[in-house]
Amino acid sequence: MNTVIDAHNISKVYNPETIPVYAVNNVHLHLERGEFTALVGPSGSGKTTLLNMIGGLDKPDGGNIFINGNDITKLSANELIDFRLKNIGFVFQSFNLIPVLTAKENVEFIMQLQKIKQSERDERIKQLFQQIGLEDKLNERPSKLSGGQQQRVAVARALASKPQFVLADEPTANLDTKSASNLLDIMAKLNKEENITFLFSTHDQRVIDRARRVITLVDGRIVKDTAVVSTEHKEAATIR
Amino acid sequence: MWLAKMAWKNIWRNRNRTIITMAAIFFAVILSVIASSLQAGIFDNLVKNVVSFYTGYMQVHKQGYWDEQILDNSFESSAETEKKILQNKNVTSVTERLESFALASSEDITKGCLVVGINPEKENEVTLLRNKLTQGSYLQDNDNAVLLSQGLAKRLQLKVNDTIVLMGQGYHGATAAGKYRIKGLVKFGSPDLNDKALFMPLATAQDFYSAYGMVTSYVLSLSNTKDLQPTESSVRLAIGAGYEVMTWEQMIPDIKQHIETDSNNMKYVQGILYMLICFGIFGTLLMMMVERKFEMGMLVAIGMKKSTLVILMLFESLLTVIAGCLSGIIISIPLVHYLNKHPIKIGGETAKAYERFGFEAIFPTSTEASNFIHQGLIVLVIGLVLSLYPMYKIIRINPVTAMKR
């Protein structure tokens, strides 16, 4: 095991000058490679803010976040973009595929940004579409795919850059039960077989049930951090 | 390359928006091309009318003649000088004139007049003098006769086939006197010229003024009338320092000034047109930015550099603006050519006023390629400058706020 995410004392405060609201309050979080973790909590508990800060989309007002040993709070906005491209995969609630590109082109797009060679891109695309079970939908535009299929393509896109971990913000929120189950199967399989680290923010019990670690956030604080099943993965963090 | 492909796909994702933007640019180009071609065409026509009155586009005199227009400042006409002038490819013909003043008398009346000795055929090529003939017939080289302007004939109460008596001072103080048959009457738009001009064959004028072999000016015809300055310099260089070479702009500065003033006024009209174009294009750019804000935030979130996103937007703007500009230019070409062949005709009193001054009462368009290129480029630059706004917004985009629904 090695540490992928190591966040110390991170805080995010809105309206610090007037009525301070702590979206995230002094949170410590430690994730090892290969974890399959759900971040849960009521609306407004700070899940998305925490995820945004770990993903380098938002800067904390206090504390440090180390990804693979690099303190991302010290990086400039441009360095963060590059860091995200190389190290973090994102899956969003509303799929967010580029509508004018085909499923294949949406996945390839990330590798084009990384300036990966065509032959390598083709090979990776083939492998990813096999993993998400959409080999026959390579040339379909997002509008021709179901919600579940679009989210599977989004997962493939998130994995295209071979990231350190994948952040998924409510990935099943817009999916029906069958599609959500398929998606979770795929992500669980990728986690198990390729040791890919997943961190979800979710309300969805289906996701919570499949997670091996559940972190509960209330009012910007971690109130519970539980390892659910695995014998391999012990409780990874303590309640702070 | 993949960015250009993506830009092409992006501009067609919202077909209506793209068509509206392209249409705004398309109509802007057509309007500005027609406005500028019309302006250039009207000015060209004005110059053509004024220049073909009398001066021609360019003249050669003995050095100092223009400041002191007397016979003693004439020069000897030489085939060699003419040949040197004609070596310039832009000069198509050279015609000589001998001009001076004389007293013209009928039975009881005497009046000062401008005597112009001309080569009848060559003069007609430059000033279309034959077309100004209202009565009688045109001059021949060996005629001992004159063409009289209508106003002068009226003052002197003379008509075709009457005799006019001329008296004046000839070359180097010689006495000039002669009587001539009036072969025809010509009408000029310019009241000044119409009241004093008298034309006779060059040899007759040289004989009258005892200025044998002398001329006061060479009037030059040009193939490209816009190419004045280079032609002037080249002719001056060819014939040497003893001569002055003058363009119509130097000889009739009032017209040049009038054109400049009118051009400045026209710039305000074009400025308003360009502002309308700006609003049209900017409106669609704003719509596009609102529609795609989320997507742009998402692209930055997943690792697309803002500079790459700016290049993508630049490609999209370039493709849209160039497509609008090109289609506008392609359609405006036949329109401008049609308006050149079938110019807008002015009617009523305005037309009569124009014709009274010898101007054609028409507004033709200029078909010069530079009008299309300039206007196309201006609209292209406007489009590209306006696309700096989305680029500025991209540079400032925050993926977290952009992705908030």
TrEMBL record, chain A:
GO terms for molecular function: ATP binding; ATP hydrolysis activity; transmembrane transporter activity. Keywords: ATP-binding, Nucleotide-binding, Transport. SMART domains: AAA (SM00382). Residues 5-239 form the ABC transporter domain. The keyword Nucleotide-binding applies. GO terms for cellular component: membrane protein complex; plasma membrane. The keyword Nucleotide-binding applies. InterPro entries: AAA+_ATPase, ABC_transporter-like_ATP-bd, ABC_transporter-like_CS, ABC_transpr_LolD-like, MacB-like_ATP-bd, P-loop_NTPase. Belongs to the ABC transporter superfamily. Macrolide exporter (TC 3.A.1.122) family. PANTHER family: IMPORT ATP-BINDING PROTEIN. This is ABC transporter ATP-binding protein. It comes from Ginsengibacter hankyongi.
From TrEMBL, chain B:
One of its GO terms (biological process) is lipoprotein localization to outer membrane. It is a multi-pass membrane protein. The keyword Chaperone does not apply. The chain crosses the membrane at residues 268-288, 309-333, 372-395. It is found in: Cell membrane. Residues 272-399 form the ABC3 transporter permease C-terminal domain. It comes from the Bacteria. InterPro entries: ABC3_permease_C (IPR003838), Lipoprotein-release_system (IPR051447), MacB_PCD (IPR025857). The keyword Transmembrane applies. Residues 18-235 form the MacB-like periplasmic core domain. PANTHER family: LIPOPROTEIN-RELEASING SYSTEM TRANSMEMBRANE PROTEIN LOLE. Belongs to the ABC-4 integral membrane protein family. LolC/E subfamily. This is ABC transporter permease. The lineage of its organism: Bacteria, Pseudomonadati, Bacteroidota, Chitinophagia, Chitinophagales.
